[in-house]
Amino acid sequence: MRVQELFDLTGQVAIITGGGAGLGRQMALALAEAGANVILAARKVERCEEAAREASALGARAVALRCDVTSPEEIASVVDRTLADFGRVDILVNNAGTAWGADPESHELAGWNKVFATNVTGLFLFCQAVGRQMIRQRRGKIINVASIAGMVGSPPEVLNAVAYSSAKGAVINLTRDLAAKWARHNIQVNAIAPGYFPSGLTKVILERSSEPILAVIPLGRLGGADDLKGAVVFLASRAADYVTGHILAVDGGILAI
């Protein structure tokens, strides 16, 4: 097979949670550029509708749906609608997430529970709902969005969000465990671990701590508007058929030092 064919996603069906803004939007549009049809799911459906219009302009069939990933019923509704419209799910990108900044010694339990409900439990429920369909299909690609924060500790001057870091660590091991369990069904489960990218989630952190953050990035800059595109297309494509349980860091070299 020619290399262009390995990366071609023409006709594939992808669900992207948190697909209306930030990193989710970047990844959703990358999949659309590679030929996939995209279902954009998030609590703020108006953002998904805007992104869906951009994806449609690229030639994709695009659907915007409201979904709170902490609701099993809303997750089931997205999967059911996808199957009704497209008949299958080839790719799932679990990008929806939230954060809570606080010192560990004073972190509120409500904030801890909120972060885990979205970043871990909601992600697992989406994997479970889509995984059942992929098992029936005997194929599928699941891409969880983790973070380098789930792989290393950080001084509070760089990142002071212990619930977020802990939740992303859980996502990393969940990814590996699902990869081991679902490999027999020809389902590849991988994760992308971004470093520091400008987004709604990181706005306050970057405004407060841009200098110490840039100091720990060997490439000397934040992630840009195209820096996740290749990673998500690779893991969603046949080029990654022999890659599972992998955590792909896209971090400007932070983990190298």
Oligomer: single chain
How much helix, percentage-wise, in residues? 40-55%
Q: Work out the number of β strands.
A: 7
**Alpha-carbon distance between the termini?**
37 Å
Q: Mean pLDDT score, rounded?
A: 96
Strand percentage:
5-15%
C-alpha Rg, in Å? Answer: 17 Å
Which parts are unreliable, with pLDDT below 50 for 5 consecutive residues or more? none
Return the CATH architecture: 3-Layer(aba) Sandwich
Strand neighbour order, sheet with most strands? 3-2-1-4-5-6-7
- CATH superfamily (homologous) name: NAD(P)-binding Rossmann-like Domain
Helix-strand makeup class: alpha/beta
Number of domains: 1
Describe the structure.
The protein has 257 residues and is an alpha/beta fold. The protein is 45% helix and 15% strand. The chain contains eight helices and seven strands, in the order αβαβαβαβαβαβααβ. A seven-stranded parallel β-sheet has the order 3-2-1-4-5-6-7, sandwiched between helices. It is globular and about 50 Å long. The N and C termini lie far apart (37 Å). The mean pLDDT is 96.
